[in-house]
Design a protein that fits this description.
The chain has 79 residues and is of the alpha+beta class. It is built from two helices and two strands. Strands 1-2 form a two-stranded parallel sheet. The N terminus is likely disordered.
Length: 79
């Protein structure tokens, strides 16, 4: 499975992101979500890492709702 493959299969994907520090994560996640209905991405979950991951996860939830993400997203935030 290459990143530039013409393979028509969509593999399950878990994204690990330090969302909130740079715009690159937001751009990549927005792109993948915009292509979700076209079956280009099979996103099973997004894990936030880095300093204060709980705040990053909350920011990601807000971001997903603001871009109109149609999939139900829930967070399993630990105290």
């Amino acid at each position: 499975m290459g990143s530039c493959s013409n393979d028509t299969q969509n593999y399950p994907m878990i994204i690990i992101s330090d969302f909130g520090t740079d715009v690159d994560d937001a751009q990549a996640i927005a792109y993948l979500c915009s292509n979700y209905d076209k079956k280009a991405a099979n996103i099973k979950g997004i894990i936030t890492v880095g300093d204060i991951p709980r705040v990053r996860a909350q920011s990601l939830e807000y971001f997903l709702s603001s871009i109109g993400d149609r999939k139900e997203h829930t967070s399993e935030l630990q105290s």
